[in-house]
Amino acid sequence: MNGILSYEFMQNALLSAILASIVCGLIGPFIVTRRMVFISGGLSHTAFGGLGIAYWLGKQELMFTIRPIYGATAFVLGAALLLGSLEEKKLNQNDLFIGILWAVGVAIGIVFVHMTPGYAPDLLSFLFGNILTVSRTDVLIMLVIVLIVVMAVAIFYKGFVAIALDEEFARARRLPVYRLKMGLTILTALTIVTLIQVVGILLVIALLTIPVAIASELSMNFRKIIVLSVICGITICLLGLFISYYIEFPSGASIILIGGILLIIVKTLKGISQRKKSALVQ
Amino acid sequence: MGKSIIQVENVTYGYGKRTVLEDVSMKIMERDFILIIGPNGGGKSTLLKLILGIITPWSGKISFSGDGKNRLGYVPQSAAFNRSFPISVLDMVRTGCIHGENYLRQNSRESIEKSRDILQKLSLEDKLGENITDLSGGQLQRVLIARALVADPVALLLDEPTTALDIASQTDLIDILEELRQKMSIVVVTHDPTPYAGIYGHLACLNRNLYFHERGELNATTLEKVYGCQVELLGHGIPHTLLHSHPEAVRK
User: Fold this and answer.
1) Which of A98, A158, B152, B244 sits CB 3.0–4.6 Å from B197 for a disulfide?
2) Chain B CB contacts of A220 below 8 Å
3) Closest partner residue to A175 among B72, B82, B100, by Cβ?
């Protein structure tokens, strides 16, 4: 164990796994209870447009370098602001706009990758995730995002819970519902940016939902679900990371498959325990 | 009955281009109990949302005496909130203490004490730790009332509170409302006025316009126009008993 931890890439991978688990554990329960999973899918796929543009710009002779993740961050945040403002205008067609953003984002990415000369191996790691290629700079960016998310959730926790539980009642209590919803969408966007580096664009939704699904099997208390989601996320990410290192499986897919297996195990054990309990009652 | 605490003046509102409420005026007096009936889409829930500030009128004004604006209790239809949200009864009631002005610096200990107190008064002290998903319809309705009462309101607004309740739970609810009307104003919007017979103070019918019984506006002609069918009024002319003995006439 000490041997593999002496590699800087492995240290970065471990740190990014833990950081990603913290944000997905904090934001995932809000996404699931507010039924924002489809929005998350749309936002993560929109990121591909930003990645494509940044990748193309990176190959131009510019005065500065642009990392693909910067492009992804700009696109995801832009899409989050757009979706938030459309919802406030009560267009009631959120699904439609999310679907369009999803597809247009991917299309922009494909066009810019096509326009960039040469093969683009980096972009594949953004699509499918490769935690072993996360750099120290990436870890620092993730750390900043995690700090922002942790502070925002700590400060606005009661407001976020109020809108997730009963938006109409929150409005009746004169809470700033629009700003809270927008804040939550932006935090979701930041979380997605963090997760893209770990599991890739295509698998972000899984890491936002599987730890919450496991935690919800273990507790019916929202605070506990948040804590358990963080713990489940760390467990899943670390197990997936070691599996991908030792048997050379793709890291993103390994993490998600471990999550899926863990969810099946927890659900099965809970079912057995409930059947035993009801048998005892009878 | 004392002074007026909420004044609705010439309010008009709608959705898109469709006007739902037109030139509606009413006063809610201290410790009044107003029962508002009316057909689907007549604007009953919209009127409550306007009073609560959830939506803003197209024209007209809603004003409050004293700090009444910030002291309104609201019991929405039980289908309006996320029933699958993992939260205990105590925490659910505590969310009633949150207000736009204090949600960043709410006193947790105070909200817990107030919530425990109100749950005890509503005979829910043994349900504190239970999850809201495990409650019966009647228990859930009492939790929603507790959440509305925990902020010490001057007026309680209830939207179709008896819709999903069986007869026993309806009776419990009526007993609670009868006790509460000694302390605060109550406005109930409902399809079925039957359970409230004998406890309401004023009766009104809403379908785009608001017709008050006391103003002599709730006669058979008005109601037939409002409901679009033949209406038979039993006990007409006797305040507080209007319609209660024959709710089917209203349900048609």
Assistant:
1) B244
2) 86, 131, 133
3) B100
With 0-12 CB in 10 A as exposed, 13-18 as middle and 19+ as buried, what is A3? exposed
Tell me the per-residue pLDDT of A154-203, one tens digit each, with 9 for 90 and over. 999 999 999 999 999 999 999 999 999 999 999 999 999 888 888 888 88
Which chain A residue shows the shortest CA-CA distance from B16? Answer: A90
| Residue from B50, B54, B108 to probe the interface with A (highest A Cβ count within 10 Å) | B54
Residues A30, B194: Cα–Cα separation, whole Å: 41
Alpha carbon distance B53, B186 (integer Å): 17
Per residue in B127-156, pLDDT (tens digit) is 999 999 999 888 898 999 999 999 899 999
Q: Which of B81, B82, B86 sits opposite A220 (nearest CB)?
A: B86
- Collect all residues of chain A within an 8 Å Cβ-Cβ radius of residue B49: 168, 172
Rounded CA Rg of chain A: 20
Nearest to B140 by CA among B84, B178, B97: B84
In angstroms, the separation between the Cα of residue B71 and the nearest Cα of chain A is: 9
Helix (H, G, I), strand (E, B) or coil at B6: strand
pLDDT score recorded for residue A63? 72
DSSP labels, A139-155: HHHHHHHHHHHHHHHHH
Provide φ and ψ at B201, rounded to 5°: -100, -40
Asked if the C-beta of A155 comes within 8 angstroms of chain B's C-beta atoms, the answer is: yes
Q: For the beta carbon of residue B197, count every other beta carbon within 10 angstroms.
A: 18
Closest Cα of chain A to B109: distance in Å? 14
Residue B107 has a CB neighbour count (10 Å cut-off) of 11
- Strands B155-159 and B33-37 come out as unpaired
CA neighbours within 13 Å on the CB side: how many for A109? Answer: 26
Name B8's bridge partners. B26, B62
ipTM comes to 0.83
Q: Is there a contact between A244 and A132 (Cβ–Cβ < 8 Å)?
A: yes
Q: Which of B72, B95, B101 sits opposite A165 (nearest CB)?
A: B95
| Burial (Cβ within 10 Å: 0-12, 13-18, ≥19) of residue A277 | exposed
A52 touches B at CB < 8 Å: no
Please tell me the distance from the alpha carbon of residue B34 to that of residue B30, in angstroms, as a whole number. Answer: 11
User: A156 to chain B: which residues are within 8 Å by CB?
Assistant: 104
A3 to each of A139, A251, B65, how far by Cα in Å?
A: 21, 19, 73
